[in-house]
Structure prediction request, 119 residues.
Amino acid sequence: MKHFHLLMVFITLSLFVWQASLALSQSPGFSKQTKIATHVIYTLLVISGVMMVLPLLSTNAPLQWVMAKIILLLVAISASMKAFKASVEPAQVKAGVFVASIAYIGIIGLAVIKPANFI
Prediction:
């Protein structure tokens, strides 16, 4: 399951970079297939992440870093949604891409560090 989750992470980040480059270059809106693919990838990412965390719940391991990753993922998704809308100003696109990028960097940092006692 770990390899599948990492594959979804790679696809999610690649899709974000591609969408961000399109949005920042002010190209026309995204196709319906791109929007559907984004939803499917996010869903598979969350499901695979939940499947990996479930065994940790029975061990009473500190999982504050998981909650932080979930919150950062929600921030990244909401910032991406705002940035990639067809009817936003260029400044909003830049701000949304910046916030989502910082959130993704935070998620990767938490995944690498896995702090034992985050709070």
